[in-house]
Amino acid sequence: MKPFSIKIESQYWLSDEKEDLCSHGEIHLEIGGAKITSAGVKEEWGISESALALLRTLDADYISNPDCEEGLILHGCGGILMSGCPISIHWSVQHNGDEVFLSDFIKFTSTDLTEGKIEYPDIRVSVKKIVYEQEILQFAKQAKALFESSKAKEIEDEYDQDMYTDFWKEYDRLLQKYSAN
After folding, report:
1. Which of these, 31, 40, 92, 109, could form a disulfide with 116 (CB 3.0-4.6 Å)?
2. Is residue 58 a contact partner of residue 49, using CB atoms and an 8 Å limit?
3. Pairing of the two strands 88-96 and 4-12
4. Cα(84)–Cα(21) distance, rounded to whole angstroms?
5. What's the gap between Cα 74 and its chain centre?
6. What are phi and psi of 145, to 5 degrees?
7. Is the pTM of this model over 0.85?
8. Using one digit for the tens of pLDDT, what is the confidence trace for 84-143?
9. 8 Å CB contact between 45 and 26
């Protein structure tokens, strides 16, 4: 059993692939033997947005903040990239030398933060940094593959186009930085 495992179970577009800026689908996330989400539980996630959020944790700590609408696994229901929906999975990522500590897992399954909140207070794992990086990188590469095999996006709104361009610049920079290690 791996202490940390994340993979894409399915990935698709919600609307016309030329217009949808975020890929969506099912994720398998297992921490220390506990399944946080997996295929078949009727949970849909914003795959590409989540991949960027996770790439950011490869060189920076992330402290779980359930009062914030952004987590590490995002729902992708916002009108713009990486914002606007409290449905998410949060956890803290703390780096210490060759180890990464994962804790404070919380999942929100509803836009009503008082109803759909599931806490996992007993889940705390230590993962070798190289293992954590490999899991995140394979997830991010798999997420990007759908975009590479799809038609080019047709984004008419200048603000959305700028956001989309900035999103992929950061994504590609982080992916290249850690793929080279």
Report:
1. 109
2. no
3. unpaired
4. 14
5. 6
6. -60, -35
7. yes
8. 678 889 999 999 999 999 999 999 888 777 788 899 999 999 999 999 999 999 999 999
9. yes
